[in-house]
Amino acid sequence: MSAERNAPPIEGYEGLPVGTLQHRVRALTEEQMRDLIAYEREHADRPNVLEILTSRLTELENGAEPTEGDQSFHPETPEAPQGGSDVSPRGQGPRPKGDYQPGSA
């Protein structure tokens, strides 16, 4: 292994969602993939992640080339919510609808 196994070749690897990881490994070389597979086996040893990593390594071994993907791309990061809140300005929940008045029968 060319690098210490305590440092995977992808920054923030441990916290990446699987979909993001699948995208990010496409930029790695065969050697980096082997390093990452060894790191994964020694640390989390997640079967679904190992399947993704070994599949990509096989693609590279069969002639695929690393891509120049954007390493900051996070497809599973949700966008910020849009719109307002139903909470009243006084923070007491939604305002009553219709003619209903709290405290009246």
Automatic annotation (TrEMBL):
Location of the DUF8129 domain: 18-61
Matching InterPro entries: DUF8129
Organism: Streptomonospora salina
Protein name from the UniProt record: DUF8129 domain-containing protein
Pfam families linked: DUF8129
Span list, region Disordered: 56-105
Superkingdom as given in the UniProt entry: Bacteria
